[in-house]
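Q: Start with the shorter request: fold the first protein.
A: Done. Sequence, then structure:
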Amino acid sequence: MARSMVRLAVVVMTVAAAVAVAQAADGPEWGGSWQMGPTTGFLFSRFDGAYVGSTGLVYFLGGRQGTNTLGDIWTFNPATNAFADTGANMVIPISNYTANVLTDATGLGLYTFCGRDAAGGQSLAVQAYYPATNTAVQLPTADNFPGPMPCSGGLNVVVNNKVYVAGGLDTVVAPYNAVQTWVFDPMAASGSRWTRLTAADLAQGLAYIMGAVVDGKIYAIGGAFYDPASSICGQSLCNVTTVAVLDPAAPTPTWTNLAPLPEECSSSRAWGFDTDSLYQDPTDLTPLAGKIISGCGWWADENNHVNAYTVATNTWEVFPWFQIDRRDIAGEFLPLAGAPALWVWGGRKDVDTAPIDSSEYYSLELIPVELQSFTIE
């Protein structure tokens, strides 16, 4: 017997009313605000963190500390607000990376691609950290990033257990910024894990792009390109307002431009929510479904701006700002029971030699069960 969808009239009416109220309140102010979280146990910038549900911890895979690059792997326990050094270290300490949660033949691993090493050089290595065994590995050189330009600072997003990598930066070798898009499959045999999407070159070479996924589509938000003569924007990195989308499921995936950001942004983090997401702003009840929340960051004078994008209308609006200016941050959505929230940690403000040791979070909540539609057989 085919499964049928039945929606009780009272539920539909209640949901419709709730959505109408939420949309009416969905203005440039939103309702909540970022709150200061605990002081971190480290001083990292140009780094990232990844949440692992099975352990309940966020893992940070090292980063830039002043003029040094460290590979020390730290954790954050949101249940206790405690930070801890795992004692493990990345094989190659790097900065300017994104942490990607993947499952491979070994189990759940946190993957990084490229990055700047401790000497300031470009790494093409693929590394993985396995929380279950507290071990970090470097994959064989046959699995190094194969593009003609390094992918450091490039967009990294995970869709269906594959990582999509686009763009990147090398300040030594022209043309400085990468345009190609590559796909990494952790379940493929070593030496055959990378595939280039030949029709999906970025319209402009960029790095420090904020990436998000909504309903399986990849959004590339902002970024910056290198201008060694500082003749285009008056500084060596020029921030952009560019926003583009790529559908990996399309017969020939390509990047399509969308409405630009309301301001130039780069070097921050973004969070996407599918259109069936049940999270909402707890203050004004604005639904997060079909939205992207993105920090702005900027280079070189970082800011605390945050913007929100609505997929259905292809429009941007102002989201409540961080408490302090920061860029090159770690960011993650923690879907914790009773305390779901967007989180950011560390980052840079003013100078590399004084990384930020604070965190911030923006609380969310689930739409109450009585306001959710449901199915019966």
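Q: Next, the second protein, separately.
A: Sequence, then structure:
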Amino acid sequence: MKLLSALAILGTVVSNAAEQKPNRYESLKQEMRQSIARGNAWLKSQQKPEGNWDDDALPAFTALALTAAVRDPNVDPKAAYPEHIEKGINWLLSQQKSDGGIYNRGLSVYNTATSLTALSSTGRENYDAAIIKARKHLIDNQWDIGQKKETDNLNDGGVGYGSKNDHTDMSNTYLAIEALALSKKVIEDGKHGDQPDLDWGAAVKFLSRCQNLEGSNDQPWASNDPKNKGGFIYAPGESKAGEDKLPDGRTALRSYGSISYAGLLSFIYAKLTPDDPRVAAVKEWLGKNYTVGENPGMGAQGVYYYYQTMSKALAAANIDTLKLEGGKEADWRKDLGEKILATQRENGSWVNDNGRWMESNAVLVTAYTVMSLEQIYHSIPE
């Protein structure tokens, strides 16, 4: 009865392999635990005397390093934080502006979303006031330019970098959605009074307009061709992975890996069910394009960002093994964990030889990668 109750709570199906080898992840867990400790030790060595990491104009670097630090399984979540973590959190809090955002040189959504996730990851009530203000900043940055519904702007429902003079995109939208979902526990009990929330219906419409799925995307670039169906692009009408010419003369915007996992995670936080055609379609695309060797559609570009969205999305989806083509299944935790462990440098850090999207920055990439390992570690079924 205890086993059945545990399965019901998890809401997931344990594979036959797991039943036969309940400790099959034990060795990997120990290796990841050590790797996480080495990665966080390297990050600690890179902290600036003021308490921040890397560029003080971009609090996101500090926020990502702090998220990696507080989620470390080697750190007692109930004990007082080590001095360097407290110093980092205090620096981050000191960057909060009157509009609730945590930013310095623009990019207010990106910096605020990553900072909100870091503060929420602590689980400590003394940061509630800052969390509530940061939440409002992100909600205020959801686009709705006030046009009629039948002619609304393609950016509506999404979130951009923090200006409503350019456009929205999947990366900022997913980061904002994630931060709001992870911080919602702060406002759920009502002790802070009525609090605003994202327009989730509009958000789902925006997400759908970034997915290659003709049945739910009302835009002409949506494609059901086998190569792209179900996957995501960067923004309505824009893909970082280029285009495909279809036999019927149309042009398809290519789906790619990191943003498709961001789309799956966003759908989950928006409470779409697993049997929703949009969720089923993106999982099918991810299964067809499964790899830990590259960012599908982008090669080495943004591969560590890809690992982060991959680990978060598959864990949130309660997927133990991802269904691939031909009836095969992939143990993504083992595949991704081993790949990441193999690429850690001797000093404990990671870096991408391809520098697009700042992945030549070892602080950024190490924080990404430690967070990916922690996501795998904490998602392993007991």
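Q: Describe the second briefly.
A: The longest helix spans residues 26-45. Residues 42 and 291 are 28 Å apart (CA to CA).
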